Amino acid sequence: MRRRDLLKGLATVPALSVFGSAQDDDKAKKQARRAPAGILRIILNGPFALVMDEKQPDKITFFCPIDKQALHRFFVNWQLKDNGKDPGRVYHLELPPDGLDVYPRKHAYVDRSFKDISFRTDLWRKQEYFVTVELPVPDSIGFVSPAEHVVFEGNRRGLMPLNNVLEYRMTDPDDVKIVYKDEKIGPQSVTKLSAEYADYCKKNGRKDRMAEEECADLEHEFKSWDEGDVRTFLLGVGVDESLDRKTATAHAIAFYNKLIADSFPNVKGKNLVHIGDGGYGGTTSRGAMLTPTVWNPDQGSGLSRNVSAILDCEVIGPHVTVTGP
Predict the structure, then answer these.
(1) Partners of 319 in the beta sheet?
(2) Alpha-carbon Rg of the chain, whole angstroms?
(3) Whether residue 275 has pLDDT greater than 70
(4) Would strands 230-239 and 39-45 be described as parallel, antiparallel, or unpaired?
(5) Nearest 5 degrees, angle CA 35-CA 38-CA 43?
(6) Which of 29, 82, 136, 182 could cross-link 102 (Cys pair, CB 3.0–4.6 Å)?
(7) For residue range 182-234, what is the model confidence (pLDDT) as tens digits?
(8) How is 170-218 classified by DSSP, letter by letter?
(9) How far apart are CA 200 and CA 209, in angstroms?
(10) How far is CA 117 from CA 244, 256, 259, 306, in A?
(11) What per-residue confidence (pLDDT) applies to 274?
């Protein structure tokens, strides 16, 4: 974002002239430090709900509830943080604004493919969650395809992207850290993310609907990310790959519906009934579209790329705007 701090010259007495010059130099240095120095993309994969609280417009929150069946695992940058065996363990992560070009904005730009899982409510009944992530409002929220065909109660049909990708502009990549207790976690390069994902594809590509060509497409996608100074975080919650597809799908639907019932009890008619078998067959995407959070029906259908999700994930959580006290 361009910042125009126009300073008027002080030309009355020498002392004030010197003071004015010092102010100019100081602001110039601050502006130089704030100059864009790359892009940060945060990939949240798994049943994370997004909350945009109108009372706290300068931040957003993602959360994943506790899974009482202890099937969920938690990863940070591909490293296993929790195997889900202890349902009492919880994680509260925060991304401070240090090193980011963060400025006051009313909302992020959100890809229109999230519209079918977006709603407003006056009540967020907060609980102790398995994973909570608090972040500044990003420039945009998109996804890496595919998006899945889904059916909600009342036979309402729609789309569900299988991950969230947040984008920020950085001013100093070395200052960007995710904080968990006393631990500070830095972002990784796209090269490392791509290598880790290639390894995952090699091990699991043939057994969980990741075709080899989709892995190749995503490798190409990461190369386009790496054209500039892009850093990444990958935060993932999912079930073990050994869980059969039928069981994983049933678990995902029940988990999604319970998430809404427990945290957003005033929301009705949003329950998930069925998850389709194929990705969304839309037109070719140019990535996270810079479209307003408010859905505009004149914008046409959502767009998605023919590449695979970061991990094989059945659902994500809803996008919720909280309006109440």
Answers:
(1) 50, 118
(2) 21
(3) yes
(4) parallel
(5) 135
(6) 136
(7) 999 999 988 888 887 777 777 765 444 444 555 666 677 777 776 668 999 99
(8) BS-GGG--EEETTEEE--EEHHHHHHHHHHHHHHHTTTTT--HHHHHHH
(9) 13
(10) 25, 11, 13, 21
(11) 93
> What is the pTM (predicted TM-score) of this model?
0.78
Through-space distance between the first and last CA atoms of the chain, rounded to whole angstroms: 32
b vs e for 214-250, b when ≥16 Cβ sit within 10 Å of the residue's Cβ? bbeebeebbeebeeeebbbbbbbbbbeeeeeeeebbe
What residue ranges do the domains of the chain occupy?
A: 38-322
Q: Beta strand pairing status for 109-110 and 118-121?
A: unpaired
Please give the average per-residue pLDDT across 161-168, as a whole number: 92
What's the Cα-to-Cα distance from 299 to each of 22, 135, 288, rounded to whole Å? 49, 28, 14
> Percentage helix, strand, coil, to 5, in the chain?
25, 30, 45
Measured between alpha carbons, how far is 202 from 283 in angstroms, rounded to an integer? 28
Query: Which amino acid, one-letter code, is at 77?
Result: N
Q: What is the chain's length?
A: 325
- Quote the tokens at residue 45: 């994969």
Show the CA angle centred on residue 193, arms to residues 191 and 195, nearest 5°.
70
